[in-house]
Amino acid sequence: MKFIGDITQPLHVEAIEVGGNDISVKCSGSTSNLHAVWDTDMIEKLLKANYSNSVTVWANALATRIKSGDFKSEAPSWISCSSITTPASKRRSVEDDIAAIFEKRATITPLECPLQWAQDANAFDCSFVFSFTSGEDLCTSSYFTNAVPIIETQIAKGGYRLAAWLNTIFDGATNLP
Fold first, then answer.
1. Cβ contacts of 114 within 8 Å, gap of 6 or more
2. Is pLDDT of 106 > 70?
3. Cα end-to-end span (Å), the chain
4. Distance of CA 151 to the CA centre of its chain
5. pTM of the entire structure?
6. What span, in angstroms and rounded, lies between the C-alpha atoms of 63 and 54?
7. Number of structural domains found in the chain
8. Is 164 exposed, middle or buried (0-12, 13-18, 19+ CB in 10 A)?
9. How far apart are the C-alpha atoms of 49 and 47, rounded to whole Å?
10. Tally of CB atoms within 10 A around 139
11. Is the N or C terminus of the chain more exposed, i.e. has fewer CB atoms within 10 Å?
């Protein structure tokens, strides 16, 4: 379960400077590393600023955005897992990936969904994550403001995908909006 959430964090799917762990940066005046800033620091700042420092409030807000807000139209694509660039697999859905695990085909062919999800998260590394300037405070500059939509979308994707996998394992279908 941890893997499905972790795969949405852009620095978990790249290897530059050990996933950003060896890149020293500033966050709210303190020295940290890029990985920690993305894993913890910016999320904590976002929670304090926008969600009464509550993970529950944030999770409920993201769930609402998925069910009836700005994520509603795109959420189904987060678990579609279809790609013409994935020749190793003919599976096209979370349900197919789960079936492959139960049929033990997954030991032969990589699962399509996690590969696509990793590629999705990795795209943010080049387009945004490494776009800061040396010495910039990542948590008090426009970098943070511009990171928030990425963070919220990626966290929402992780939750939605985890729900899809668990629903498929226990109910046989994603049963998601």
1. 3, 4, 7, 97
2. no
3. 21
4. 8
5. 0.84
6. 14
7. 1
8. buried
9. 6
10. 21
11. N
Tens of pLDDT along 61-90? 999 999 999 999 999 999 887 543 343 445
Query: What is the widest separation between alpha-carbon atoms in the chain?
Result: 52
Within 10 A of 129 (CB to CB), how many other CB atoms are there? 26
Tokens 């290897």 map to which residue?
Answer: 15
- The CATH number of residue 27's host domain is 1.10.575.10
DSSP summary character for residue 132: P
| Phi and psi torsions of 35, nearest 5° | -60, -45
Is-contact 138 132, C-beta < 8 A? Answer: yes
- Asked whether residue 129 is assigned to any structural domain, the reply reads yes
Q: In this structure, what DSSP letter does residue 26 have? A: E
Which of 161, 153, 164 lies closest to 128 in space, CA to CA? 153
Nearest-Å Rg of the Cα atoms of the chain is 17
